[in-house]
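cron nightly-structures :: item 1 of 1
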Amino acid sequence: MNTQELIILDLFCKECQVEPKLIEDLENFGLIQIILYNNNKYIHKEELVYIERVIRLHNELHINKEGIEIILDLLNKLEDLKKQMKLLKNRLNLYE
């Protein structure tokens, strides 16, 4: 496994001032994924923005895990709709 793409969870928690228990709760609920490698816990760099968004929703807006799950699902659906709309606009431009 390429550990250059991984961030040590304890370091992330310390830098972002996040309780490790919160990260564990979010993982147990299925909102984030933690990688266990050589008895250390990591998060993938590609997931960093996503994880920070989840933490921000929880800490700053005081949204519970169920609410975060719904919000993230709606944001994904919105992105899909934007992509579909762009595709349809491009197809319409062919006929103009």
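cron nightly-structures :: done
The chain has four helices and three strands.
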